[in-house]
Design a protein that fits this description.
It comes from Hymenobacter rigui. Its cofactor is heme. InterPro entries: Cyt_P450, Cyt_P450_CS, Cyt_P450_E_grp-I, Cyt_P450_sf, Cytochrome_P450_Monoox. This protein has 467 residues and is an alpha+beta fold. It has a domain at 1-85 and 343-381: 2-Layer Sandwich (Uridine Diphospho-n-acetylenolpyruvylglucosamine Reductase, domain 2). The protein has helices at 22-27, 29-34, 36-47, 67-76, 85-88, 103-113, 119-143, 153-170, 176-198, 203-208, 211-235, 246-252, 264-277, 280-295, 297-309, 326-338, 370-374, 417-434, and strands at 50-55, 59-64, 81-82, 149-152, 344-349, 353-355, 358-360, 365-369, 435-439, 447-449, 453-455, 460-465. Strand 1 and strand 2 form a beta hairpin. Helix 14 runs parallel beside helix 18 (417-434). It is globular, with a radius of gyration of 24 Å. The termini are far apart. The structure holds protoporphyrin IX containing FE (HEM). Residues 83, 98-99, 110, 165, 273-274, 277-278, 281-282, 285, 341-342, 345, 406-408, 412, 414-416, 419-420 line the site of protoporphyrin IX containing FE.
Length: 467
């Protein structure tokens, strides 16, 4: 007979996270594909910071904007989580490089490649960034010679960022036509890949109309283009004294244990991954940055005043001088809070785990919703407002812990974060030194979340010469 006097035992485990009923995700799967951000925000507002739903109406997944859970997965308990097949699926098209690799193989590659991104190396690469920025500003001068020029900023920044990453990777010998083709192939592969993930029910149809084989052919073309640059460099017998780029770094790197270099296949994979990871992310960050500055001319004026105070209004800032421009950096940080180019990250539990008493069975899929984390209504004051000062040293309230992760976190932190921040600073400063920026239309810009968060096509801004 049960002892009716004793209090019932407390449950050993906390209740699982809430779920959006499957029928509801199925009904709204088209709406979710059309407006993921609006739908995810609503799901969090209705159900809390971690909510389960079926991606594409099919795939069970927890979406979280809880900083403690994000930290648990990316940092504290990272060994229990891998990227999911959403990322690994890219291997088929781009290859197995740092971004898509896992386990011991990933760690070996990361240790090998990390020194290539050290500060000293970055100083050399900054000259390439300066050259790409000068070319863009020159183009603006030509277009704005007779009056303000209207520019589609996303189109322009995509070209600037691809110039930077392709030259930083392969040096300056690539022709414009070769660079355009490389960029085109990567863009097409990415767009196709996102479609297969976002709308998995289209896969049989895409198979039927030959889309998979067409994109596999593009992927082979990409590998052959990249292989061509690698062989050219090897045959020229050149060394790091002539080339201070990322390809030379990859070619010169030797594994600690064997003293051997990477194989050609590995070189192709890693070079492909650098192009992929370092292209669209930076282009989007730059586009959002100029868009926000056009909307907030006071912030642009403050950056210009900072340049003037540092004596850098009449010439480009050198690598070592960038640290003297803290407000410019705060503007960049705030831009990536509001519009994180990597807006969502995926992880899957490799084994059973638990978080705050809730069981997480092996195989559980998580989407770490950085966009939601960066605009969390209780973690940030005025979360949707553009306020660069929140990143000032000693700002009150301080930036909440693990709630700001534009470059990810834990051991898989973006290897190119300093590279990207330097590139964005250089392009920003060169532009603001010589131009004012205003919106060219009153239409608000809608973010389009693909693999990265890009502005809807056609963000038109007006650039006017200062001198
Ligand atoms: C604003 C620009 C950039 C943003 C916002 C960004 C963001 C990120 C994020 C969030 C991750 C972690 C992904 C995860 O944990 O699942 C990552 C990884 C990575 N990024 Fe970036 N990235 C940027 C620019 C770059 C650039 C310029 C490069 C190369 C030059 C680069 C190369 C990589 C690589 C190779 C990884 C994989 C690192 C690893 O797992 O070891 N990124 N990036």
């Amino acid at each position: 007979m049960p002892d009716t006097l004793s209090t019932p035992a407390a449950p050993l485990v906390a209740p699982p996270f809430p779920w959006v009923p499957r029928w509801r995700t199925l009904l709204s799967s088209v709406a979710l594909a059309r407006d993921p951000i609006g739908n995810l925000n609503r799901a969090h507002a209705n159900h809390g910071d971690t909510v389960g739903l079926h991606l594409g109406g099919i795939r069970p997944c927890y979406i979280t904007r809880d900083p403690a859970l994000v930290q648990h997965i990316l940092q504290k308990n990272h060994r229990r989580y891998l990227k999911s097949d959403l990322t690994h699926g890219l291997i088929r098209y781009i290859g197995r490089g740092l971004l898509t690799n896992e386990g011991a193989d990933w760690l070996r590659q990361r240790r090998l490649i990390q020194p290539g991104f050290h500060r000293q190396r970055l100083a050399g690469l900054t000259r390439l960034m300066q050259a790409a920025a000068a070319e863009w500003v020159q183009e603006l001068h030509t277009r704005a010679a007779a009056g303000p020029a209207e520019v589609d900023i996303h189109e322009a920044m995509t070209r600037v960022a691809f110039r930077v990453i392709s030259q930083a990777t392969f040096g300056t010998s690539m022709s414009d036509a070769e660079r355009d083709r490389l960029s085109e192939v990567l863009t097409q592969i990415q767009a196709f890949y996102v479609r297969t993930i976002r709308q998995p029910y289209l896969r049989p149809w895409l198979q039927g109309i030959g889309s998979y084989s067409r994109h596999e052919a593009l992927s082979r073309e990409l590998r052959e283009l990249v292989r061509g640059y690698i062989r050219q460099r090897q045959q020229s017998g050149n060394s790091s004294t002539q080339h201070d780029d990322l390809l030379q770094m990859l070619l010169d790197a030797r594994y600690e244990d064997t003293g051997e270099p990477m194989t050609e296949e590995q070189l192709v994979d890693e070079a492909n991954i650098l192009l992929l990871a370092g292209h669209e992310t930076s282009a989007n960050a730059l586009s959002w940055l100029f868009y926000l500055l056009a909307e907030h001319p006071d912030a642009a004026t403050q950056v210009r005043e900072e340049l003037q105070a540092a004596g850098l209004l009449s010439r480009p800032a050198a690598f070592d001088e960038l640290a003297r421009l803290p407000y410019a950096m705060q503007v960049i940080q705030e831009t990536m809070r509001l519009y994180p180019p990597a807006w969502i990250l995926d992880r899957v539990a490799l084994e059973d785990d638990e978080f705050q008493g809730r069981p997480i069975p092996k195989g559980t899929l998580f989407s770490l919703y950085l966009y939601g984390l960066h605009r969390h209504p209780t973690l940030w004051s005025e979360p949707d407002a553009f306020r660069p000062e929140r990143f000032a040293p000693g700002a009150q309230p301080p930036v909440p812990a693990y709630a700001y992760l534009p470059f990810g976190g834990g051991p898989r932190l973006c290897i190119g974060n300093h590279f990207a921040l330097t590139e964005i600073q250089v392009v920003l400063l060169e532009t603001l030194r010589q131009f004012t920026i205003t919106p060219a239309t009153a239409t608000p810009v809608v973010p389009v979340p693909l693999i990265t968060l890009r502005p809807q096509q056609g963000v038109w801004l007006r650039f006017q010469r200062l001198v």
